[in-house]
């Protein structure tokens, strides 16, 4: 599907903002961009629907201290569908265990009623910030 360069840039900027908000430590800032039927695959491979996601993120045993976007590794838009691969660093406490992870995530987005929404997501196993980061091919 051919779209104008202006529309491509507009969509790219909107998707970039979605990713930034998804990486915000405030759960609600990113949740607004997750479609009600979104399925998220955890590092264990276990799927999580939005009821499970909400339960996990609102759980008092999960305390998110920070979640920062480190890089957008790849972003591709094809009409009303897009995918984005990005790297984050999250500092959180789960049931008293402190975590400081660098993870790679992939999200598939669909433009629904003019708004980009995440319809599928997947997160890699986290690595320590001092470990070598994944190396992605240079962008064209």
Description:
The protein is globular, with a radius of gyration of 15 Å. It has a single domain (5-123), classed as Nuclear Transport Factor 2, Chain: A. By secondary structure, the protein is of the alpha+beta class. It is 23% helix and 47% strand. It has a six-stranded mixed sheet with strand order 2-1-6-5-4-3. It has helices spanning 5-22, 27-31, 50-58; strands at residues 34-41, 47-48, 62-78, 81-94, 97-112, 115-123. The chain contains three helices and six strands, in the order ααββαββββ.
Integer count of domains: 1
Secondary structure tally, helices: 3
Low-pLDDT stretches are none
Shape: globular
- In quaternary terms, these chains amount to single chain
Here the CATH topology equals Nuclear Transport Factor 2, Chain: A
Order of helices and strands: HHEEHEEEE
| Helicity, as a percent range | 10-25%
Largest sheet: 6 strands, mixed
CATH class: Alpha Beta
Whole-number mean pLDDT? 93
How are the strands of the biggest sheet laid out side by side?
2-1-6-5-4-3
| Distance between the amino and carboxyl termini | 20 Å
Number of strands: 6
What's the SSE blueprint?
Layout (H helix, E strand, L loop, with lengths): L4 H18 L4 H5 L2 E8 L5 E2 L1 H9 L3 E17 L2 E14 L2 E16 L2 E9 L17
Parallel strand pairs: 1-6
Antiparallel strand pairs: 1-2, 3-4, 4-5, 5-6
């Amino acid at each position: 599907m051919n779209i104008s360069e202006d529309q491509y840039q507009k969509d790219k900027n909107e998707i970039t903002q979605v990713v930034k908000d998804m990486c915000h430590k405030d759960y609600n800032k990113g949740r607004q961009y997750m479609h009600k039927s979104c399925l998220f695959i955890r590092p264990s491979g276990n799927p999580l629907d939005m009821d499970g996601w909400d339960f996990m993120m609102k759980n008092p045993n999960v305390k998110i201290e920070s979640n920062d976007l480190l890089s957008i590794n790849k972003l591709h838009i094809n009409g009303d569908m897009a995918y984005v691969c990005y790297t984050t660093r999250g500092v959180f406490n789960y049931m008293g265990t402190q975590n400081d992870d660098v993870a790679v995530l992939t999200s598939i987005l669909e433009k629904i009623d003019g708004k980009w929404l995440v319809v599928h997501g997947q997160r890699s196993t986290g690595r320590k910030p001092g470990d070598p980061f994944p190396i992605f091919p240079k962008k064209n």
